[in-house]
Amino acid sequence: MRMLTLVFLLLSVSPVYADVFNADAVDLTATLDLIIKNMAVDGTPLDVALNRYNHPNDPAGLYWQLGPIAPGLQLKTVHKRTETYLDAEPLARHQLDIYHTDHPETNKVIMFVPGGAWRQGDKDAYDALGRALAGYYDFTVAVVNYRLSNDDDGNATHPDHIQDVAAAFAWLKTHVAPYGNPNQLYLFGQSAGAHLVSLLATDDSYLKAVGYALSDIQAVISMSGSYYLPDLVTYPNNPLGLTADEVVMFKKLMQDAFGGWSDADLLAPSPQMHISPDQPPFLIIYTYNDISGFAREAENFIRAARNLKTPPEMSLRAIEFSDYTDEVWNIAASQAAQEPALSAFVGHWAEVVAINPNEPQGYVTRLVVEFLQSH
Q: I need a labelling partner for 181 at 20 to 30 A (CA). Which of 28, 115, 233, 255 fits?
């Protein structure tokens, strides 16, 4: 077998480059031209083009020569402010953090709803996500708290959570104008937050109650959510492949968050029950090592949408283990360990940890950014 050797013919410029690059930072075109994104040269990120070169003395070989060098992604200054979107107790659960750059008036606005099984989670844990999406990509990001199903954070039972999320959306439509464009408002949620943004974008009753409509949402990213809640508590012959212990765990969550686990409790708050051609575009994401059943939940949600006579725009993406760096995986493992019942599902934490200022070109960040930029 012939060994493949890459020879770079450097013209008049010979900077010293790092030795190792993440494959996520390399774009490979059909002509075998290369663009290495954010190559650090003396601490400055540069996009370095390597153009395919046909060597006259070795026509069968693969050669590249140095092409244009352009500035890479630059981390802009990010400002953070905390606002109260609803004057109700507990006050901290009715606040949101806005991340924005200088002169943000035309920025697209992302309303991010955190997860935590409807019983935990806080906006303060998503500082890295807010700064990455704002600082590198000029989005304005609003990370939203809402009442939770525990004694300290509101004793919420459906529809408390979704009503808070709807109120936060209405507040942003009315008040975000100095920090972003209220007519370019997107939803992004993970885990329980994914369920909530999906419900807000399919069941129009919650937006109507605050004076808005599904058409006010530009697009939705739902990451590792649940879309048909009764499937989480069915036993035996669970349609998601859940074990008896997993079903018991979900029954406890459903009892606390939705007041029970019968169809009467769970059908109405299931986004899959409300799919329609009028809903905004969706990107549905699940991950390697996700919580049991969540991959099938995502696939079933997409399938139900595509079975409509006029299906809405919905796409599905899976994050693989190879899409995470060791650093992200290790941080996610430490976070997962704090929730013993779910500590084995490290990927469920990693997908959010991966959106951070240290990996502005990582696969998960690009997945989110490219969808939002294209809608």
A: 115
Contact assessment for residue 162 and residue 147, using Cβ atoms and an 8 Å cutoff: no
Full domain range(s) for residue 46: 7-71
Structurally, how many domains does the chain consist of? 2
In a domain, 147, yes or no: yes
Distance CA 361, CA 130 (A): 15
Task: Determine the longest span between alpha carbons in the chain, in angstroms.
Answer: 76
Distances (CA, A) of 173 to 1, 9, 88, 107: 62, 53, 19, 13
- Tokens 């051609």 belong to 277
pLDDT surpassing 60 at residue 58:
yes
pLDDT of amino acid 300: 98
Instruction: Tell which wins on pLDDT, 38 or 270.
Output: 270
Burial class (CB in 10 A: 0-12, 13-18, 19+), 368: buried
- Write the CA distances from 292 to 239, 315, 330, integer angstroms: 12, 21, 20
154 has a pLDDT exceeding 90: yes
> pTM for the complete prediction?
0.86
CATH number at residue 121: 3.40.50.1820
Residue 158 lies in a domain: yes
Q: How confident is the model at residue 341 (pLDDT cuts 50, 70, 90)?
A: confident
The length of the chain is 375
Residue in the structure block whose two tokens are 């107790």:
89
Q: Which tops the pLDDT comparison, 163 or 10?
A: 163
